Amino acid sequence: MSVLVYIENTEGQFKKSAFEVATYGKDIATQLGTDVIAIAIGDIATDELTKLGNYGISKVLHVSNDNLKTFVNQAYAAIIAAAAKQHQATVVVLSNTFSVKGLAPRIATKLSAGLVSGATSLPTINGETFEVQKTAFSNKAIASVSVDSAIKVITINPNGYGVKEIGGTASIENFNAPTESSDFGTIVKDIVRATDKISLPEAEIVVSGGRGMKGPENWAMIEELAEVLGAATACSKPVSDAGWRPHSEHVGQTGIVVSPNLYIAIGISGAIQHLAGVSSSKTIVVINKDPEAPFFKVADYGIVGDAFVVVPKLIEALKSYKAN
Amino acid sequence: MKILVCISNVPDTTSKITFTNNDSEFNTAGIQYIINPYDEIALAKAIELTNGGENGSVTVITVGEATTEATIRKALAIGADNAVRINAIPADAWFVANQIADYAKKNSFDLILTGRESIDYNGAQVGAMVAELLSLPSVSIAKSISIDGNQVNIEREIEGGKEVISATLPLVIGTAEGVAEPKIPNMRGIMAARSKPLDVVEPVDVKPLTKFTKYTTPAARGNVKLIDENNINELVNLLHSEAKVI
Ligand SMILES: Cc1cc2nc3c(=O)[nH]c(=O)nc-3n(C[C@H](O)[C@H](O)[C@H](O)COP(=O)(O)OP(=O)(O)OC[C@H]3O[C@@H](n4cnc5c(N)ncnc54)[C@H](O)[C@@H]3O)c2cc1C
Ligand SMILES: Nc1ncnc2c1ncn2[C@@H]1O[C@H](COP(=O)(O)O)[C@@H](O)[C@H]1O
Q1: Does domain A2-184 fall into CATH 3.30.300.130?
Q2: What is the CATH number of domain A205-323?
Q3: Is the pLDDT of residue B67 over 70?
C-alpha cells in the first residue's frame, strides 16, 4: 500500500502547489500508516527532485524522455496509472491545475477509481470509505463526497492547503514510461507565457478591478498596486467582455476560481457570479464608492470611497510600509 | 462533421441553495435550471462549425431525468439538430461519462464537445473520462478552436499563459470562455425545436464511484470592518497585524 502524488513542474521547477500536494499526500499517508511516493515527469534536476523529501516524500519516481517534455494528458495518465499499480497506491493525489483537470479524470478511469476534484479537507477514513469535502454551488455550500472504490483519486486546489516542511530525504528512482504512440494524440506546438506576471490561479495576493474602473486606461494603478504587493491582477467579467483586460484575468463562476490569502476588489459590485470565484479567499478587502454594494457583505475590510482617490493613497501607504 | 455536445443541467447561480433529508440531499424545489454556461459555449461553437447544420450535424446529449427536457429543448431552440436524453439520474461523473461514451461508441462522432466544467460541483471530470473511455485524445480547457479538414488547432489555458496544440479528429474538447459567444434562441428556433427529434435512451448498467452524502453552509464572514479613506494606514496595519496577509 502507498499514497502516490503527482508533482507538476514548470520548466523543471516546482511551485508552491507542488509542495502542497506533497504535504497533503504525506498527511493521508500518516493516517493510513504508509509511505508517500511522488512521481514527476520531465526534465528536472536532481536538486529540485530532492527538495520533495523535505515535505515527507520518501521516494521520487522520475520519468524523463524527449517525448514527454511537453504535457500530453493521455501519456501522462498512462505513466501515473502504471506507477500507481506498480506501487499498489490506494490514493493518488494531484494539484487541481489546468493540466490536471485533463489528467486526473483519465487516471481515475484507468484505475476505476472514484475522483474528487478540488478537495478542501483531508479525508475522513472509515475502513475502505473516504469522506472528503469540497465546495459546491458557487461556494454556497460545502459538500461531503464519499468514495468507496478500492483506489481514490483526489485533487486539491492550489493555495487551498498549507505546506509543511518536516525535513527528510527522498530517494530518486528512474521510472520507465509505459507509453504507446497512440498516447500522443495532442502535440504542443508552442507555449506562450506572460513571464513577467504572477500567475493568477496560484497567486497569494490578487488585486482585481471591475467596471467601476471606467476604462482600460485606468489599469495602471491596479497594476502598480499589484506590483507593490507582489500580487496577480484579475477583473470582473464585464471588464474582460469589453476587452479592457484579457479573458484569462476574469474571475468568477464562468472564469477562474481563486482562493488567495488576500483579494482586493476595486470598483466591483460583488454579484453572486463574481463571488463564486473569489469567496473562498482568506481575506477580502473591498474598495467601492457605493456603501450599499453587495461586496461589502462578504468583505473583511472595506473602504467606501472613490477608487481614483483611494487606490493611489493605498499604494503610497504600502510603499512606505514595505520600505520599513 | 458530426458533433456531439454534452449538456449538463445546472441550477441558475442566483438560486437559493437549501438541503433536505437531514442535509443529505440538495433541495431541487423551486430551482430554476439552466444549460451549464460552458456547455452553451460548446453548443455555439458546434453550430458555428457545422454552419447551422449545412456542413454536418449537432447532436446534444444529456444524462438526466425527464425534468431536464426543458433544458434540452432550449439547446434545440438555440440550434442543435437533434437531442438525446439518457434516462437516468446523473449519479456521478463516472456514471455520466460511461453513458455518454456508450452512446458515442454506437453513433460515432467526429468531435465531442463538453464544457470545461459544470458550475454546480465544478468537477471538470466528465469530458476527459469520456475521452479515456473512448481512447480518444482530448484537450480540457480550450480558449479557442479552429478546424480545417481533419486538422484541429486549439489554444489551451495554462497557469500564466497558453499552450498552442495541434491534433486530428476525432477528438474530445472541453470549452471555456473565448471559444464562441453563447447564442440566444430566437422565436423561429423555439418553434423549430418543437419538431426536432429528442430520443430517450435507457442507461447502461454502471455503478457510480462517488456519492454526495452531506451538505453544510460555509461559515459566514464576520462583519466588514470599515476604514475611513483618510486613514489608509489603518488598513495596512490591519492587513499586517490582524489578517497577517502582508
Ligand atoms: C451566467 C452568468 C455568469 C456570470 N459569470 C460571471 C463571472 O464569472 N465573473 C463576474 O465577475 N461576473 C459574472 N457575471 C456577471 C455578474 O452578474 C455581474 O454583472 C458582474 O460581476 C458585474 O461586474 P462589475 O462588478 O465589475 O460591474 P458593476 O456591477 O457595474 O459594478 C461596478 C461597481 O463599481 C463601483 N464603482 C463605480 N465607480 C467607482 C469608483 N470611482 N470608485 C469605486 N467604486 C466605483 C459601483 O458602485 C459598482 O458597485 C455573470 C453573469 C451571468 C448571468
Ligand atoms: N449529466 C450530464 N449530461 C451530459 N453531459 C454532462 C453531464 N454532466 C456533465 N456533463 C458534461 O461534462 C462537462 C464537465 O462536467 P463536470 O465533470 O460535471 O464538471 C459539462 O460541461 C458537460 O458538458
Answers
A1: no
A2: 3.40.50.1220
A3: yes
Task: Please tell me the distance in Å from A286's CA to the nearest CA on chain B.
Answer: 9
Helix then strand count (H, E) for chain A reads 8, 16
Residue A195: predicted pLDDT: 67
Q: Which of A172-186, A195-209, B3-17 has the lowest mean pLDDT?
A: A195-209
Q: How far apart are the first and last CA of chain A?
A: 51
CATH topology of domain B2-210: Rossmann fold (3.40.50)
Of A73, A299, A316, the CB nearest to B128: A73
For the CA of B122, the closest atom of ligand 2 is 19
Chain B closest-CA separation from residue A167 CA (Å):
25
Out of A110, A146, A194, whose CB is closest to B132?
A: A110
Q: Check residues B132 and A160 and name the one with the higher pLDDT.
A: B132
Classify residue A292 by its DSSP letter. T
State the DSSP code for B3.
E
Share of chain B above pLDDT 90, in %: 93
Residue A154 DSSP code: E
Q: How far is the CA of B64 from the centre of ligand 1 (A)?
A: 33
Residue A27 reports pLDDT greater than 90: yes
Query: Which grid coordinates belong to A55?
Result: 515535505
